[in-house]
Amino acid sequence: MSIPSTPAEFRASDVVQSNAALAARLFDEHDATEHGGENETGSALEACAQLRKRVLELDYGLVYPRTRKPARTTRQSFEGNGHALASLAQPLVPVASERSVQSRETTAPGLNETRRDVRKIGPLISAELLESEALSSALALANRRPKIEHAQWKLYRVVSGHLGWVRSVAVDASNEWFASGSADRTIKVWDMACGKLKLTLAGHIGTVRALACSERHPYLFSAGDDKMVKCWDLETNRVVRHFHGHLSGVYSMALHPSLDVLATAGRDAAVRVWDIRTRTEILTLGGHREQVNGLIAQREEPELISASADATVRLWDLAAAKTRTTLTHHRKGVRALARHPALFTFVSSSADQTKTWSLPRGELLRNFETGGEIINALAVNADGVLVSGSDKGQLRFFDYMSAKQFQEWRCPAQSGSLDAEASVFATAFDMSGTRLITGEGDSSIKMFRQV
């Protein structure tokens, strides 16, 4: 055990050497006692006592003779004793008894009094310091992640066919096709492998702003500025259900992955939950003050997450039909949401910053610098690649864990389009996470893959 720093300034090496010399002297005197009689007995006992004292010093720290108690220290002297405060986070040196603690003396002003004060306030201060140190250690451990090198993404296909802005994109669970919705009021279904048009669905009388593909049924859901929410049967290519109730345009939707439940939201600031079998509106969730731009539905709690132009993100308890948590970290309207497919986290974006959050409580994890652009769309794949699409046509690729940007892509407008139309309105990864699909303001759909 190491000797603590004290006024006597014992060093471990000095103590060991002195103990060896003392033991040798003890043995010599013991031999002399046997041959020289009782006159040498006192010195031998004294040497034995000194050796015993040194052993106690090594085991329990230095033992000092009893002296007068030092004057009681003030709060100011306690706060000024920096090394004493720092020692509160460390276990005290073990002592033989409470009496020996009280009998120690030190030249450090008020240290004995400080240690007695620790019995009263020490647990509180020590707990706070230990909690702070534990938190710092946990954060340091969390930040020591292996550096991941992501491959660069490259444009490999431009799909044309729409006559207006492409405002929404959705990928089927089979990964064989994807759908796009446009300002030309049509929905088009495309072959994933070759990019050829397979089907055009007409029926909306306004911009198609939201799409969702069912994993459990051959259904495609759509919503738009015409306040309509439609369910398309892709086996017959017809609308089989209408959902009426929104008072204005519908901007976002999300299908629950394990329940026959659809959530929709839009300009009327209400989140509506529907039973897709009976077309019944189950819940109307109020709380947002402005239009709702993004929705996430998931199996785990919270089962529904919404983002609004009122600069808040809400986590909803569907069973209680109320808000569980309201996240107010954004300073500007939140325009996009995306959930990580493998981690229990999600990401939100506004004109000020892009932020990632942990679930279920919604703790802020980290911020992404997006250059102050207006972000319209977000997408995350299982490999930890986060993509944001902006009004200026910028695609930014980030490492999800470190928040570091590793690529930027400027999407030029297609021939015959204005530069102002070089905007990204929708982004989606395919089911494998190796292909990225974007909906553009120049009426095109662009497909990217890793080099």
TrEMBL record:
Protein family membership: Belongs to the WD repeat PRL1/PRL2 family.
PROSITE patterns the record matches: WD_REPEATS_1, WD_REPEATS_2, WD_REPEATS_REGION
InterPro entries: Prp46/PLRG1-like, WD40/YVTN_repeat-like_dom_sf, WD40_PAC1, WD40_repeat_CS, WD40_repeat_dom_sf, WD40_rpt
Source organism phylogeny: Eukaryota, Rhodophyta, Bangiophyceae, Porphyridiales, Porphyridiaceae
Tree of life domain: Eukaryota
Region called Disordered, residue ranges: 96-115
Descriptive protein name: Pre-mRNA-splicing factor prp5
Protein's GO biological process: mRNA splicing, via spliceosome
Keywords: Repeat, WD repeat
GO cellular component: catalytic step 2 spliceosome; precatalytic spliceosome; Prp19 complex
SUPFAM superfamilies assigned to the protein according to its UniProt record, in alphabetical order: WD40 repeat-like
Positions of WD repeats: 159-200, 201-242, 243-284, 285-326
